[in-house]
Predict the structure.
Amino acid sequence: MDFYLPARLITGRGAVARSADRIAAFGDRCLIVTGGSAARKCGALDDVTAVLEERGIAYKIYDAIQPNPSIASCVEGGRLAARFQADFVIGIGGGSPLDAAKVIALSARNPELDAEGLYSMQWPNPPLPAVLVGTTAGTGSEMTGVAVITDTAGRKHSFHGESFYAALSIGDPRYTESVPLRVTASTGVDALAHCLESCFCKTANEISVALAVQGISMLLQPLSNIAKGNLPTPVEREILYQASILGGMAISITGTCMPHNLGYYLTETCGTPHGFACALFEPALLRHAQSCAPQYTVQVLEKADTDAAELSALIRALTPEPELRLSEEELEAILPRWENNASIRKTVGELTKDHIREIWREALSL
Ligand SMILES: [Fe+2]
């Protein structure tokens, strides 16, 4: 086993205010990275700026991060941080602003690099420290050394490595209380996808499975409620957030596998929300795991007090119909994308081109 997870996480109500000393230790100037209005609406931005003002830390806000953030926005944000002479970056939001903040922290110390230079994974300087404040329960980015960024060709590509762990992550479940039902469902099912995929990665080990199993068992009840159309209670919000962190820790060890990689295509082509896009392929992962590792699958899911049938039904109840329409010929044309693909190879057992074709046919009801 090779276990490494260098991220400090502080959670609970009032966690940002309680972290003031640690935030102030990163320097005197800060770039805040966020999306549109969610960080303001949930109160996280006000809490962060209150700490910065109280400690006399100068700040600038870069709030141009869109869902599925582009590498161009990371370069722009990085150059802004460099001009502002920021000592550190604070990302506030769901997965998109958090992932973007990690790459903006890198770009800030390497502002001469364009998109290609950043993706080269060879940079003259290490990134600035990044503080991440999570406002949704799903991404797990708070605990991973990964940032998924859309390249100039519109394809999602991961940055990963030790440079992409947060210097400090802060989670206050209060911030998730203003998240609407549909986003809560999509991010919640993303957390479940992380836990499930982690269990069925060839890279899984005792620690990752323990984290993922605990995450799955915590998610079952609040996700069942969401599937019935109910907004989570504050207690359920807290459970969802904690489980999303466990999922993040699990994939920090294993990475994700087949469903995430197929899901990226749906998001790139139709804008399907990330969690829903991955969820569409989770029942196929469970079925595949049952066929190639039946005993392991039963044991793992039993530990989470569930089984493949119950989980698949829950995921289907949470997942809207896909908007993508493909003919058989169009499907055939995109299949090479998953040949020699690391995420496919990492999935338990073996997934051939025929398997991937069948998984797509089933997901799109072809
Ligand atoms: Fe995800």
The chain has 18 helices and eight strands. The chain has a mean pLDDT of 97.
